[in-house]
Amino acid sequence: MKPFEWQEAPAADFAVIGDPVAHSRSPQMHNAAFKALGLDFKYVAVHVPPGEVKAALSHLAELGYQGINVTVPHKEEAIGWCLHVDKFVTEVQAVNTIDLERKAGINTDAGGFLATLPELPTKTALVLGAGGSARALA
Predict the structure, then answer these.
(1) Are 73 and 133 in contact (CB under 8 A)?
(2) How many structural domains is the chain composed of?
């Protein structure tokens, strides 16, 4: 599914924003989950160039979107739009989930990743990368 430019975003409930964002499987995964649960929600991919995140988030909120997932390279820039962020967002300086109505941002990268791992006998790990997800995991 081709992403929409933020100025031309369709009526929907949720979206993932990024640059690039065409590679994201989030719309397929979320829409399949909504259908399986009998929920009448729509999730789309929205392309947002760097420097336009605040305008895009405001526009999507005005259109009635409920929530946004944030991917590269906007996890830092999106913090500036949020009125409320949790302590973890402040620590890692990266937000990946935004409640548009409340203008509240959280970061679920570390918790989501760690939940997939079995109990490991060691506490040492190598994290490669310097983006928002890498900082959240470190």
Answers:
(1) no
(2) 1
Could you tell me where the beta strands, DSSP code E, fall in the chain?
4-5, 14-18, 43-47, 67-70, 84-85, 97-99, 104-106
CA distances for 27 relative to 45, 53, 87, 108, 118, angstroms: 6, 19, 28, 18, 28
What confidence category does residue 113 fall into, taking pLDDT thresholds of 50, 70 and 90? low
- Told to judge if 75 belongs to the known catalytic residues of this protein, a careful annotator would answer yes
pLDDT score of 138 more than 60: no
Catalytic residue (one of 42, 54, 75, 87): 75
Other beta carbons within 10 Å of 77: 17
- Model confidence at 127: pLDDT above 70: no
What range defines the domain where residue 50 resides? 4-137
Residue 127: give its domain's CATH number: 3.40.50.10860
Does residue 32 surpass a pLDDT of 90? Answer: yes
Strands (DSSP E) found in 7-123 = 14-18, 43-47, 67-70, 84-85, 97-99, 104-106
Q: Is 35 a residue whose pLDDT tops 90?
A: yes
* Paired strand residues for 45: 16
